[in-house]
Each structure stands twice: as C-alpha cells, then as structure tokens.
Amino acid sequence: MFCKSIRLFSHSSSSGSFSFETFRKMENKETAGDADRPWQSYHTVYTNAKAGMEGVDKERVQRIVYEMSKGSKYFENEERKEATIREKIENMRARCAQLTATDLSQYQKVADKRILELEITRDLSRIWLHVDMDAFYAAVETLSNPLLKGKPMAVGSMSMLSTANYEARKYGVRAAMPGFIARRLCPELILVPTNFEKYNYYSDLTRKVFHRYDPNFLAASLDEAYLDITEVCKERGLTSEEIAKDLRTSIYEETGLTCSAGVAANRLLAKVCSDINKPNGQFILPNDRRAIVTFISSLPIRKAKLLSQIGGIGKVTEHILKDALGINTCEEMLQKGGHLCALFSQSSADFFLSVGLGLGSTDTPQVRFRKSISNERTFAATTDERLIFQKLADLAEMLSMDMEKEGLTGRTLTLKLKTASFEVRTRAVTLQKYICSSSDILQHASRLLKAELPVSLRLIGLRISQFNEDGATAVFGPTQISITRFITSGDATRKSTGDCCSLNTDSNNHGFMDDTEIDTCINGYDTDPETHHQVSNQRLDNNFSNMDDSNCMSSNVAEKSEKLENLLRNVSADQANISTAIGSTSDSSDALIPRVSSTACASSRNLEGNPNNNVDDESQVEVRSPDNNGQIWWIDNYKCTICGAEVPASFVDERQEHIDFHIAEKLQEEESGIRSRTLTPRQRTADKNLLSSPRKHKRQKSTPKKEVKHIPIDLFFVKTNQKF
DNA sequence: GGGCTTTAAGTCG
DNA sequence: TTCCACGACTTAAAGCCC
C-alpha cells in the first residue's frame, strides 16, 4: 500500500515535489516488497481488528481472506474501489503540493481561529454513558443454548455473519465476514441463524434497565444505547463510575448478559471509552478539559482504533487522512488543521477539528421521523428478465406492506441494482402523487428497471422517500405540522443546526474553500461530530412520547402557547448566558457569536438584531405588532395574521422574507386574480405539485425559497431547546 | 445563479 | 460443496430549467 510514515506536507514550498517523488519511490519499493505477500494490500472491513481480536494472527487472517477472495467478481470490484480511493488520495496529494507557504500559513490561521471557536462550545456539564452489549446476538444465542458456551460460534449464514463470540474472534472471525471465509479461518466454527425475535426480546429487557437511569436514553441499535446519567448521579449521590458499575450489574442480573460501558462528557467520547475495556468492562473519562485533551492526544488513532470508533470516519476517510495527509493521531488533526481547512469543505474540516478537540454532543436530541423506507434482496446473479421482474414485484409487495404498517406514502422511488460485477447503480423518479400501493410501486419501478436492461443482476432494492407529512398537514397547515414534528420528532435537529449556522454563512465562511471547489468531500459531516453517528433516537418514555399526531391535533392552542412562552423565556436566558460567556472569553466577540452553539446562533441574531426584540416580554400577552411596512401583523409577535406561519421576532431576515412573500403574492393576485389568500406558501407549493406537469413542478421559483426559509418555528424550537 | 432532482458515494450496526 | 447483507442515514456534484 502507501507509505504511511512520510510527512508529506511541509511549510516550505520546495518540499511538495520532493515529497511527491519520494512517495512514488517509496510506494514502488513497498509494492515490490508486497509481491511475495500480496494479501498485505488487500484490506476489507473484516481484516481490521475488533474487540477480542488482539491476539489474532493478522497475517494469517489476511492471507486466507485474500486467497479465498482472489479472482472473484467481488474481489475485482474491491480492486476497482481501491483504485478510486487511490486516485482521490493522489488528487489530494497533488493539490496539497500546490499549496504555497503563504497559503498554508493563511489556512493555519483559519484553523487556529476555528479551534478557538469550537473550544468555546465545549460543554462539561453533562455526564454521558455509552452501553454496548458484548457480542449481543451471540450472547443471546448462548443463553438459549448453553451448549454453545466456550465454543467458537457466529450468528449468520455462509454468506454473511452478523456477529461472532469471543472464542471465534480469536481465530479472526468477526461480524460482516462471509461465513465461508470464517469457516476456513475456524473449521470448528458453529453457525447459528439469526433470530431477531429473540434479540428484540432481550433488547427490551436491557432497555427497561436503561430507562431507570435515564428515561430519555437514546437507543443507537438493539445492543447499544446512550444515557445521560447527570441527574441519576445527583439523585443517588453516586459517582459516574458507581452508576456505570451498578447499571452493568443490573443488566447482568436481569438478562444474564454482559455489557461494556464508557462514561465521558459527551456521546462521542463515551462511545470511544466503552470500547477500551471490552468485554464486560468500563472506562471513565473525567469531565475535565485537561483529562479529555490528554486522553484524545495520547491515543494513536491506529492503535486505539479511535478513528474507526468515531461515527463518520470509515475505511475510506481513514485511508485519506493517513495516506494523503499523514494524519495518524487525533492530535495531528489539530496540528494539520491548516491542511484540513485547505483541502476539505468547512463542515468536514470543522468535524475533524472537533474530533481532535474531543468535542461531541451533550444534548438529548428529539425523536426523529424516518426519512425513507426500503428493502433489498440479494440472489444468484441472473439475466433472466422474467425472474428479475418477479423479484421486483416481490419487493414492491413487501415495501408496500411495510409502508402500510407505518401509514406512509411517498413520492420518490429509488431503484437500486447491483450487477453481477458488484457495480451498484441507483435510479430514481420523483412523482406528482404520493404512492404506497404495490401496483403503483411496481409500475414505476418497472419503468426504471426496463431502462437498464439487459443486465445481469445479483441484487435489487426499492426505496421510497419524500414522505407525505400525513393528514395533519391538511388540518393544521404547515406551521402546526412543524410543531407536531417538533414534539414527535427530532428531524429538525440536524437541519436546524445547519440552517442556524447558514443564517450567518457569509460572515462565517472564514476563508474556507468553497464547497464547489472541493472534489474530495467527506460525506456525513457537519460541525457537530456526534450527529455523524447515526443514532436511531428511539427515545423511550420521552416527555412527548404520548403525544402522537392525533393528540397533537386535539392539543389546544393554550398548551402550545405555553410551550412557546417557555421556550421564548429560555432564549432570553440563553442570551444572557452567551453574553456572559462571550464577554469572558473573547475580546473580539463579533466573529465568535454565531459560532458559539446552535443556541448561540439563534440568540446571536437577537443580540445583533433589533434591540426592541425582547421576545420574553412580548410573548407574555397577545400583541399584534406591525412590521416596518405596517402591513403585516404578528399575533403574539410570532404568528403571521395572514397565513398563520410562526416566525419569532428574532428571525428578522426570515420575517422580512415572509413579508416580501405576501407582498409579492398580493401583487400577483392583483395581476392574475386567481391567487388564493388562504393558502400558506407550503400549501401552495403542494397544491401546485398536484396540479403541475412533471416538468413544471420542478420549477417553482416563486415559492420554494420562501418555503425553505419558512419553517422557522421548528428550527426555533430546536435552537432554543439546546443547552448552551 | 438558484432551486430542485437525480445520482453517487460513504458510514453505521 | 457453499463464494461477500440489509436498511437506514448523510453530503455533494451535476444536470435541468427558469
């Protein structure tokens, strides 16, 4: 593979060509050295180490995996993918070599500034615990069949393993490995088929325990959860270490299963910590900045598997960081901040810097609505069109049934195909109407599939997205649906963070490359490292969990008003906090204000905006306030009298845009005489979608911009809901 | 140039 | 002897049209 030890990037301009050339030489040398052991350069997910695989003969595992894979279509595809990554790395190296000393010095300043700004957001007030059940599926199977105890076993099939117990891991067998390779590694391996009924049952038992420590815990999967144990530590007068021990004991007593725990100031660190003393162990990282920084910087990424532990950094990203930038430790993420800012988009660079600082989420996100629903099936590769269409019909039927169960309808249908050579293709169509019936799905999916024929396929998948926001839309209109979504979902959480900051995009683009200039972008990042980890956010006993849509419909205006008032009060409190924080940490606070936190983003607008926007005072009574032009009135200073849209006073620009919209609408009405005043912007869009032709509906220049900006109420809620 | 859609790709468990 | 999953999420780029 690539030489990993060379420092590619020096601040001297002459070093670029030297490094590049040296790299080539070293690479060739290493490649030549690999000739006898070609398996060394064949990396897959399952050749990496995992908990319980410390003593494994890695060379043997790699050789067997290589020998069993070599020559297969899968192997060829892996080689193609590997070549693409190499190309990306080469591009990045070349761009790196073009950076002058002046460039680098500039970018380093940008990075240093961002590091300071991110540092201000550090929150050490919460204690998070991450629980990870040890080899969960395998442990459950052993519980129900004690004969398996002490023997190497894995859950899954000959084609793929879901997990392996610790006895099997000693042989290099692990999750996501094909069963036939695992058998070769460990001939006595016992294979047990998956039984999700059992795993769900035991998962429920563990969740009952989690619930006692944090009723709002976040279930990341069947066998992982995040708990905010700040309150329970206080209530019981116990340390986090004692709580972790106590929880693990309870889990064991009530399920017979062991688990590992990590405790830290945020979820990202807690997750890293839970892996340190696996299995059946725990690791506590004190809520102390120095301890965190020492912990992060003393961990070599590779050795501690830290990179792969961090959500959002997978095989490709790890490869790029190491081989293109020579970043091997979290500490180096900070040291090479200038390079990161120069070569990655702002959101990606922010993410890497946050990881280097050991920052992560400390708030409890809301429940999220799913964004898509899909199914896919793998089968023996075939070109038989009759068979392929039969598979498609089966999938359409299954998908339709799944959608029916959840009461979903959607208008974007995506067909996924994997060819016999493992090439993955996706083809999508966005429809005018929302569909859920198998006949509708099949009809549109067939059309997409026909365009791909003839083809030899080994997998077909169907996905529906862009869901209808259910019947509540019709009853409440867009603003209320936002409240509904706020209560029942955290969908807006992520969006709001981005949107919040995007409000200040111009002023915040501290010299980062435009995203359009980036040809190698890291996917899945925003400024908050924790959001990269896909938490399913299954909050049990959430404060609002009993408020389904029907409840929301019956919930009265007073109740919502009260919520809003409370939240508005929080804004004022946050403003005060932020003013204090900024005042005490920085002299040039202007640049920092929008970056402090999501809350700060919201609040900073209050600080920067109209000083008369004292939302706390104005939210107490119903006030109809005229805007600058005196034509639009805001009930309680947040609700538009024309369409009912809720735009808090602090959202000055959004309000102005909203007003502009109504003015434009009025003008249009006068001109055309056909405008319906009762429709809100979003309703109007939906209305148009139904009526327009396939092409026309795409181009709704007049409304979308307003529509996008016009969801402030849920953004507002989320912003104010976050802790500073 | 901006908004929307499609497509590709990465990541997680 | 068997021959590398599935279902969710995300960001980004490119193409299209106004």
Task: Summarize the structure in words.
There is one protein chain. The chain has 724 residues and is an alpha+beta fold. The protein is built from 33 helices and 16 strands. A six-stranded mixed beta sheet has the order 8-7-1-6-5-13. A four-stranded antiparallel beta sheet has the order 9-12-10-11. Helix 11 links the parallel strand 7 and strand 8. Helix 17 (337-343) packs antiparallel against helix 18. It is globular, with a radius of gyration of 28 Å. Mean pLDDT is 65; it is low at 1-34, 470-633 and 667-724. The chain binds a DNA duplex (13 and 18 nucleotides) through helix 3, helix 7, helix 15, strand 9 and strand 11. Keywords: DNA damage, DNA repair, Metal-binding, Nucleus, Transferase, Zinc, Zinc-finger. It is found in: Nucleus. Its main location: nucleus. Residues 602-624, 672-707 are annotated as: Disordered.
Q: Could you write a compact summary of the structure shown?
A:
The chain has 724 residues and is of the alpha+beta class. It contains 33 helices and 16 strands.
